[in-house]
Design a protein that fits this description.
- The protein folds into 2 domains: 66 residues, Hypothetical PUA domain-like, domain 1 (Ribosomal Protein L25, Chain P); 160 residues, Alpha/beta knot, CATH 3.40.1280.
- The chain contains 6 helices and 12 strands.
- Helix 2 packs across helix 3.
- It is elongated.
Length: 235
């Protein structure tokens, strides 16, 4: 946790907050903060700044704060990611938030098992928790937009072209030979498939929707590894 992220419900006054639970434990055991010490803080959806610890014990962390810094700008990036395995999902969602993506779409695909959509990790509160963890890691306060697209064809045919718009659309797929553009500034929509790749029909549909192929080489990467590698190359 590189930023103590304050939620609206934490505020007991305009410049004072009270925290319990996971964040309290982290500040006590990892930051080893003390009364009078300062912490980097930010208000979810708002500015960042510094907080001074007024109280810190087993029951609560209380601090007063001044928020005078803007959060880092979001990348002009929409991520369309085939729903990964539940045990990988948390890492992917947190990574998307840490990397600064403006939007994340979790999409169904042929190689996505139906059972994945029934995972408790897809519950709104679980997804939000992972997004918050990603923001804390990256020192950010602005949540990315998150969408679940359970039906591949309606999303790709009806929604995806408008997301691409006048920007750059890319679909990662092994064996295509497509080179990765670098230093993009226009809005980018990036589709990353299951670890085994998209099936041919899906790949063709994504290309018809305005995405062009790119290839990371012969290695088959885990979703979270491909995500970090691609965002690093693009921006």
């Amino acid at each position: 946790m590189n930023l103590v992220l304050l939620l609206p419900e934490d505020l007991v006054a305009p410049d004072r907050a009270r925290l319990t639970g996971r964040r309290l434990t982290h500040v006590r055991e990892v930051h080893r903060a003390t009364v009078g010490g300062e912490l980097a803080v930010g208000l979810l959806g708002g500015a960042m700044g510094r907080g001074r610890v007024l109280r810190l014990d087993a029951e609560a962390l209380e601090l007063t704060f001044v928020l005078d810094q803007a959060p880092p700008p979001k990348l002009p990036l929409t991520l369309v990611i085939a729903l990964p395995r539940p045990k990988v999902l948390n890492r992917v969602v947190a990574a998307a938030a840490s990397l600064g993506a403006a939007r994340l779409v979790l999409l169904n695909a042929w190689k996505v098992e139906k059972a994945y959509w029934a995972s408790p990790r897809l519950r709104p509160e679980s997804l939000r928790e992972q997004l918050l963890l990603g923001l804390e890691q990256a020192r950010d306060t602005m949540l990315p937009d998150l969408q679940l697209a359970r039906l591949f064809r309606p999303f790709v045919e009806d929604d995806l072209p408008s997301l691409v718009g006048q920007g750059t659309g890319l679909v990662a797929h092994p064996g295509t030979g497509g080179e990765t553009p670098k230093g993009l500034v226009a809005p980018v929509t990036l589709a990353i498939g299951p670890e085994g790749g998209w099936i041919d029909a899906e790949f063709d549909s994504l290309c018809r929707a305005g995405l062009r192929p790119l290839d990371l080489g012969p290695r088959i990467l885990r979703t979270e590894t491909a995500l970090a590698a691609l965002v690093g190359r693009l921006f």
